[in-house]
Amino acid sequence: MKGTLLLMILVLSLGVLGQAKDDLPLPDPGNVTLSLEEYNKLVELAGRPIKKPDVPPLPYAVKRAELKLHVANESVLGTVQFEGEIFKKGETKVPLIADMTILDARQEGKVLPLELEGGKHVAVLPGPSEFSVALDAGLPLSIEAGRASFSLPVPSAGSVRLTLVIPGDHTNVRISPGLITARNSDNGHTTIEATLVPGRAASIWWATREIATPAVQREVRFLSDVRTLVSVDESGLKVAALTDVTVLQGEPSEFTIAIPAGYDVTEASGASLESSELQSGVLTLKLSAAAQHNYQFLISMEGPRNVLKTDAPILSFKDNQRETGEVLVEGVGTMELTATESGGLKRIDLKEINPYLRSLARFSPQAAFRYHRQPTETPHLALEWVRFPDSPVLAAVAERAVVTTLVTSDGKSLTEVKLTLKNQAQPYLKVDLPQGASILTAEVAGEEVKPAKNKDDGTSRVPLLRPGFRPTGPYEVSFVFMHSGAPFAKKGGSDLTLPPMDLPISFMQWEVFLPEQYKVKDFGGDAVATNLLPPVFQAALGGEDDGVSMADVEGRFMSGLVDIDSLVPGQLGGYIVDQQGTAMANTSVHVVDPKTGVTFDAVTDEGGRWLVSDVPSGNVTVSAESSGFNKEVHQFMYDARRPTRFNLSLRVGSTTETVEVNEKDVKRASDRIEHEANRRKRQRICPREMQPRSTCSICSSALPACCRFV
After folding, report:
1. What is the C-alpha to C-alpha distance for residues 417 and 52, in angstroms, rounded to an integer?
2. Cβ partners under 8 Å of residue 346, min gap 6
3. Which band of pLDDT confidence, cut at 50, 70 and 90, is reported for residue 682?
4. Quick one: three-class SS letters along 246-311?
5. Residue 165 has pLDDT above 60, yes or no
6. How many C-beta atoms lie closer than 10 Å to residue 387's C-beta?
7. What is the pTM assigned to this prediction?
8. How many angstroms separate the CA atoms of 244 and 325, rounded?
9. Contact 230, 200 (CB under 8 A)
10. Of 38-52, 159-173, 372-386, 485-499, minimum mean pLDDT range
């Protein structure tokens, strides 16, 4: 009963408290009334500009630097501890110290890479944050009769403290500038503590009890850094090695380098090099100044000739304590170069290469590597390359030529040639006129120019540029020439020939006007009658279709207008036939440059011919596809300087099936198709019907004079 009564009292108390809480007065909703003075104060506070955060005046600050050094034999070794702070966000370069040999650098127990800029060791640190960097460093010690000394570079920091341990009891040590704050002698060593002037080198010296005697030859200990440039050119492999040696102990009189077999040393130079000698594959560099602690050498070599693959030589100094290096590979001329690294060689970006090594390169670098030689592995770089002959560069090209010829009854002809050019640097056009012909007038971009004649070869020169004219796009060049030919007979034939020009022309249109009393029964040569062109071409030439231009249709039907028997550099073309040797029209042909990914497209004409232009030298992939036939894919090496026909034969099948053919099968199939085409020409078979006929179904003329076939 007592427990029940107590529980009821607690429940009642909680109910009363809850009701009291709910009865607390709340403010009524509505407006707040302020005095005019308070309102004006709020308005003034609201109108004040927002204060921008202060930007630190410096990106970083080195607060403290503590140097703990000890004298060991002829060196001063120890650690340098830096503490500071990075203020700005991102990566910041912090100069640490100069004129000291740095053996190792750490930050929070991890290896920290350093850069050397203007003689100072620089660390790249993230921010904003505080940092602590520790360096293992060393300095040379100068020992004279009764005196030892060294110069200590002092870092620029807020405060710099030095702790130095020197052999000998109660040694009298002097520092200038600086203040010795503590001195202690124990166990045969003297320890001093000093405060140094930041940024000013301190000279430290003390007296020694013994007189200096000739020093016993000590073991030479040094670090080496080898930067190698490998140049692959037409004569073979050339190597230039820029070496940097830092001596830590001893006084070396010479350095030795192993030279790989098959390489000849052409030059070895250096400011401290007295002479060099190569014996049994070992290059000996004899020094003229043995008291230095830094040496630089430039070694040039030539490797094997007339090879397409070899191992790049990576030089190494014998008996070094640590060796690092970089390798830069450059190719001279047009080539495809493959570099395969192993043995601790790491590929790096070309931007990371040492600027001194980059300055040795004369051509565009192909690959760059870096290494840290380890006792258990040797850096190895295998090179393999394919060289291509350099293709000539076109200085100018004619996109279109429109020729108009007027012929009189006595055989004289007056011809106007209008060229639409894209010209980069060609100053004139060389025209080889026939005997008895001469140029009357010439114009460049609508203004008259004066043609000339070359006395050496007898050709005429038509200017393509004029003073003050700098073309940025296509423009017109025209010239008119007259030729005195033979008079026409009542019946027979006559030849009209356009003069050769040293300029590639993409498309040419020739219109000939004859006297009214003459009628052309037939014509031949390497020109195609306009009525034989596809309808879209005829519309573009005659201007009947406003929506069709020559630029729209040239790419699709150009292969049917160009004689593939006379390919110019950079062109690739041929025939597409089926398994029975019948020419296949409207077949899509794609030529792909795997290196750049550029695709050249063409469509075969009624004779199965196709053509693409401006194809560079190298490996190309040619594919042909047509509805109802298997897709053929071929890969081969193309030489733009020596263009040849490339023929394909398609087999009946699904368009989703692809047949890949190797280079030997490509040549065998191409020769078979070429033989079949020549056989049909000898039999005078009409290209459309592909059956022996006496007349052509295209132009209804006797087959020997079939204009389409000719």
Report:
1. 73
2. 369, 370, 371
3. very low
4. EEEECCCCEEEEECCCCCEEEEEECCCEEEEEEECCEEEEEECCCCCCEEEEEEEEECCCCCCEEE
5. yes
6. 16
7. 0.35
8. 10
9. no
10. 485-499
